[in-house]
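// run 5 | inverse folding | seed 20
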């Protein structure tokens, strides 16, 4: 199962709060239409077939394709002073 670093937890919580999503909201990661990459959006609720990863209050909703792609990964994040967020995916362990 995908795990989140402390930085990712903080940044995801900030993104979701900044989008004024409800308490049920989170960051949704889904395979793009071409199947070549992943899209990240803020969602008010997970989709019916999403897996929910929650860590220290940060919620990530993974569509079934993202679950497979990120099963043994760690999600990290960093933010620049101008507000840009970069996500990085690493191998667990």
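// decoded
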């Amino acid at each position: 199962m995908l795990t989140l670093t402390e930085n990712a937890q903080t940044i995801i919580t900030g993104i979701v709060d900044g989008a004024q999503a409800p308490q049920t909201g989170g960051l949704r990661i889904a395979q793009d239409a071409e199947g070549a990459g992943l899209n990240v959006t803020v969602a008010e609720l997970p989709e019916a077939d999403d897996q929910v990863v929650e860590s220290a209050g940060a919620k990530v909703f993974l569509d079934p394709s993202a679950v497979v792609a990120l099963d043994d990964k760690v999600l990290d994040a960093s933010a620049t002073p101008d507000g840009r967020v970069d996500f990085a995916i690493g191998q667990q362990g």
